[in-house]
């Protein structure tokens, strides 16, 4: 019973042997994975910043045009002044603090958020209506297919003509960015809901409405969220462009001002903020996704 | 004899593929299913036996003839006629208990009552400790049992199954057959099960309806006069197996010849 301890002969099936004891690891696997992701993130960032700094150090970069991180992050109070909306041309800068910065970040984020929410809900509603009502499909689909490939940026003049200067054109541009994608995706996804799901609903006596809310919507939601996430970065790009032109506040407006005043430090500082916000909003959307779509394992498709 | 649970009278089904001549899938089928009877529909693949189930369920319309359940002609789907597919088709966004309670929720049964029925039904199928699991945490056999529970929660008079065990491995399949017989006994429902496995037909059925290849007709109906549990070592079991093998061989040959002619 020593050499062949792992074998079972006829007549002695299922001889219970205790499982070998496995030592529990110091950190849970999930925590380890997270830590390693953060670690690699830091390494990647430092490599990028290090290269930049090195180029500056050896005099290969003009700090006026491409100031390395330690320069554009050094004078934060001075940089923050530019975010204060009470400053006017000619007035002495005042109101130094983080609040103006947070306000600027907040107003841009809010525009993205409102635009995404409206675009998503309207997109699903119109997509479903087009799928179910043949008349609507015939009337709307050709126009939608024609409008969908137009870059949201091309809508900017239209948005300003119609909505004037203010929050609305920026929100409208974000809306356009996700709306068409969601409309088209909704139709395609409803088409691909497994037939047996619908059969089960019909056998159980579900009405059309119940079938939509209880079966079709949850079945298509994961792919719609995927579409939303793919368009999130585009939404961030578009909102900045809208702010440059049509709105008096926001990160886009600051970038535009920095460009026209040739303030490279402010350009890069704002870029860093924009990058951070984009990353955070993707992270937040992923959390929402994990909460709302709890039945999908976190590492399944939806993960990065 | 009491009124049949399902009565199929000269039913036929014709498909019209787009831009081509109509195809006759089922031709003039007639047979009755007694209340509480276990019927197996056996035939070569593509003979339309699944289509017949979909028509009894009310998901497909008949092209000719009538189907009546309990004397009422079938016009639309009803939870009294449960249908179970080859894949369990549980909703991945609901827990097992909520999946089982789905039909009750659709019919506006109170949440507490719903849960009670779901728990009780899941206990009957041996999944009493899987209530709050996600469907993809269950094995194939367990998922199929949960799908049975979903149908049983509606207290169906007829339970239809479209090759329910075809996707399961051999060991699981054998146990699922025992499980099904037990469910059948304590629910009192009539069962119509589609399969192309001869052994499955012999181990389960009261009567086996043998189909011809396309267009599907009733070739013959064979009552299985063996006491349950049925032993595959029993010589009479072997006799049945030989009989069905012979009946089906003709049909498979014919289907092959037809395909080669095309």
The CATH architecture of the largest domain in chain B is 3-Layer(aba) Sandwich
Q: Identify the CATH class of the domain at 106-292 in chain A.
A: Mainly Alpha
Multimer state: heterodimer
CATH topology of the domain at 106-292 in chain A: MetI-like fold
Secondary-structure element pattern of chain A, one letter each: HHHHHHHHHHHH
User: Would you identify the regions of chain A where 5 or more consecutive residues have pLDDT less than 50?
Assistant: none
Largest sheet of chain B: 6 strands, mixed
Give the termini distance of chain A in whole angstroms. 50 Å
The outline of chain B comes out as globular
H/E series of chain B, N to C?
EEEHEEEHHHHEHEHEEH
**Which structural category fits the helices and strands of chain A?**
mainly alpha
**Pair with the most extensive interface?**
A-B, 20 and 25 residues
Number of helices of chain B: 8
Number of helices in the DSSP assignment of chain A: 12
Distance between the termini of chain B: 47 Å
CATH topology of the largest domain in chain B: Rossmann fold
Question: Which architecture of the domain at 106-292 in chain A does the CATH hierarchy give at level 2?
Answer: Orthogonal Bundle
InterPro entries (chain B): AAA+_ATPase, ABC_transporter-like_ATP-bd, ABC_transporter_ATP-bind, P-loop_NTPase
Keywords (chain B): ATP-binding, Nucleotide-binding, Transport
Domain ABC transporter (chain B): 6-238
Family (chain B): Belongs to the ABC transporter superfamily.
């Amino acid at each position: 019973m020593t050499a062949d301890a792992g074998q079972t002969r006829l007549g002695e099936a299922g001889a219970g042997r205790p499982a070998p004891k496995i030592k529990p690891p110091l950190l849970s696997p999930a925590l380890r994975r997270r830590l390693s992701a953060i670690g690699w993130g830091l390494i990647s960032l430092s490599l990028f910043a290090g290269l930049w700094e090195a180029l500056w150090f050896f005099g290969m970069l003009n700090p006026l045009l491409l100031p390395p991180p330690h320069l554009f992050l050094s004078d934060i109070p001075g940089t923050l002044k530019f975010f204060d909306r009470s400053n006017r041309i000619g007035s002495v800068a005042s109101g130094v603090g983080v609040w103006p910065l947070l306000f600027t970040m907040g107003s841009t984020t809010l525009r993205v958020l409102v635009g995404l929410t409206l675009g998503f809900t309207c997109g699903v509603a119109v997509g479903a209506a087009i799928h179910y009502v043949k008349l609507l499909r015939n009337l709307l689909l050709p126009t939608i297919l024609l409008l969908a490939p137009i870059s949201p940026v091309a809508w900017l003049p239209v948005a300003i003509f119609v909505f004037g200067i203010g929050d609305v054109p920026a929100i409208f541009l974000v809306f356009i960015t996700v709306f068409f994608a969601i409309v088209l995706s909704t139709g395609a996804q409803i088409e691909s809901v497994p037939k047996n799901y619908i059969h089960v609903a019909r056998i159980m006596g579900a009405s059309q409405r119940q079938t939509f809310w209880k079966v079709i919507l949850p079945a298509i939601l994961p792919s719609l969220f995927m579409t939303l996430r793919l368009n999130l970065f585009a939404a961030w790009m578009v909102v900045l462009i809208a702010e440059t032109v049509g709105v008096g506040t926001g990160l886009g407006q600051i970038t535009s001002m920095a460009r026209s005043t040739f303030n490279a430090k402010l350009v890069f500082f704002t870029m860093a903020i924009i990058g951070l916000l984009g990353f955070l909003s993707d992270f937040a959307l992923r959390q929402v996704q994990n909460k709302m779509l709890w039945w999908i394992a976190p590492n399944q498709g939806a993960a990065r | 004899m009491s009124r049949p649970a399902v009565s199929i009278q000269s039913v036929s089904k014709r498909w019209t593929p787009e831009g081509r001549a109509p195809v006759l899938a089922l031709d003039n089928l007639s047979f009755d299913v007694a209340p509480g009877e276990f019927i197996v529909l056996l035939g070569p693949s593509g003979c339309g036996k699944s289509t017949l189930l979909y028509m009894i369920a009310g998901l497909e319309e008949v092209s000719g003839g009538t189907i009546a359940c309990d004397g009422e002609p079938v016009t639309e789907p009803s939870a009294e006629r449960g249908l179970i597919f080859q894949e369990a088709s549980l909703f991945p966004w609901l827990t097992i208990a909520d999946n089982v309670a789905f039909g009750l929720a659709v019919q506006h049964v109170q949440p507490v009552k719903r849960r009670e029925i779901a728990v009780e039904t899941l206990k009957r199928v041996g999944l009493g400790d899987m209530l709050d699991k996600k469907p993809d945490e269950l094995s194939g056999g367990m998922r199929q049992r949960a799908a049975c529970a979903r149908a049983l929660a509606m207290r169906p008079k007829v339970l239809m199954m479209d090759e329910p065990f075809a996707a399961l491995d051999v060991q699981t399949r054998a146990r699922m057959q025992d499980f099904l017989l037990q469910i059948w006994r304590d629910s009192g429902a009539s069962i119509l099960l589609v399969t192309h496995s001869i052994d499955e037909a012999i181990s389960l059925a009261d009567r086996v309806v043998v189909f011809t290849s396309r267009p599907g007709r009733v070739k013959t109906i064979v009552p299985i006069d063996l006491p349950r549990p049925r032993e595959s070592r029993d010589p009479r079991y072997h006799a049945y197996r030989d009989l069905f093998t012979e009946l089906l061989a003709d049909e498979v040959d014919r289907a092959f010849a037809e395909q080669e002619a095309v």
